[in-house]
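Revision sheet: structure tokens.
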Amino acid sequence: MDERKIFEKKLDELAADMRELELLYERYFSGEEKREPLKQRVELERKLRALSTRRIIKTDHRFRFESLSTRYHTYASYWNRIQRLMDEGKYQRHLDRRSVKSAPETAHHSSKSSDELYDSLVKAHGECSLGTPPPDRNQFENFVERQRKQIQERYGKQNIEFRIVIENGKPKLRAKAR
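Predicted:
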């Protein structure tokens, strides 16, 4: 096998190892993995150092290696920053849409009265203990009506369902066209 193909194979392996390390870190930061993938990270750094000492003559190989190297160092800075935040207790894991906490008693359809929706807002506001009073009823009803009009202008005349959900410790109004 000629030297060009051997070097391309090494670069392919390096890219695959980097992608695997990215996935391992994402699993670690999401809480799926209990330990940081340090062994894989040290191994990838070793491979990068070994290739960096070589003189790469082919421009396409040099460009690809430098791109991979830069990408690794960018991710390493990101991983170090997130790890530092975790150590300080300031890191909050990102939640996907399925894990958004919604109080079952606060979900209401638009077919129900705005009084019930407002009561749900007040109840959710109390659960969150924000330290500020909830908006008054008139402000809330005006806001809901403006939202309804904007949604109907954008998506046409449809039934709109409003509900109150709690996201990141704050009550929010969510609308859904039916």
